[in-house]
Amino acid sequence: MTPEATVAAPFPVVSASALETPASTSPLWLIEQLWTQQAVGIIGGAPKSCKTWMALEMAVAVASGSPCLGAFAVPSAGRVLLYAAEDSEASLRLRLESLARHHRCELRNLDIRVITTDTLRLDSEADQKRLEMTLILHRPALLLLDPLVRLHSIDENAAGEIAALLGYLRGLQRRSNVAIALVHHARKNVSASGGAGYSLRGSSDLYAWVDSFLYLRRHQDQITLSAEHRSASGTGPLTLELAESQSQAPYLKLISASPASEAPQPDPIFNRILELLRISPQPRTTESLRNDLQVRNQRLVEALRLLAQQGRVLRSAKGYSLPIVNSPSLPL
Prior knowledge:
The structure is a single chain. This protein is an alpha/beta fold. The protein is 29% helix and 21% strand. The chain has eight helices and 13 strands. The chain has helices at residues 51-64, 89-102, 125-138, 159-176, 205-209, 269-279, 286-293, 297-309; strands at residues 29-31, 35-36, 40-45, 80-84, 112-114, 142-146, 179-185, 212-219, 222-229, 235-243, 251-257, 314-316, 319-321. The strands form three sheets. A nine-stranded mixed beta sheet has the order 5-4-6-7-3-8-9-10-11. A two-stranded antiparallel sheet has the order 1-2. The protein has a two-stranded antiparallel ribbon with strand order 12-13. Helix 1 (51-64) crosses helix 2. The radius of gyration is 23 Å and the shape is globular.
């Protein structure tokens, strides 16, 4: 029988009523309000916004079972496995010891394990297999990889390449029942009012992939943290600071929830698009809008997609336009 004549086996299918029953109708948390159980996600932000400090704070909280940032409970302590591509072993140990001391525990008593290889490439088939075997051996509750840019050699703006890498990580999470957190950079010169998810470097597939997403912003000496989740409501913005003193080693300190007046404002591109469509007698193409707005194509496409999902713009073969609102009938 030729390969063409081979009958392919169908995909497995079950009745919806036979699907696995969740243990609870409420979200299961690895860290309450910050990270859902077995979630894949990103800890993102601009340089010097304490992304690594946040990742290590999560590691110490999960390993110790103590509240993250002193406020967000860890329902069940678990093992943590991490790979820090940019920190030396000595620097990493100092940070972890500092955070452990703040959590009132000793680092030697915490089940935090560190991958010490010089390089780890998530786009390498050999390293993919080694990482999966490492997870099988150590069975962590949380895998931290910091930062994503040092863990591959692909083009982050190429949707096909980044989708393959993210697909591997999603499969790894499902096979290993582990939460995976990637530390990732935001693009340079990001507007303070821009949408957090779409400010990440690379393809928008990164934001679409996450189950949990932590985003840190630094404005002067103030750091704010916001959390988004696929299956739960978000949290923040929260005000943080990297507390340092002569008597105490550095640690991330939660100050308070930011006042509503300080919350990030919506990206102004949305109102600019709506205004251009309002004054245009004809539908506008993406290219013509980009020429007027002078913005990156990816940012414009994502904004149009969100506006279309909200029903605030209509897309047709001729381009984008505002919905037609029927005027109420006047009485005779």
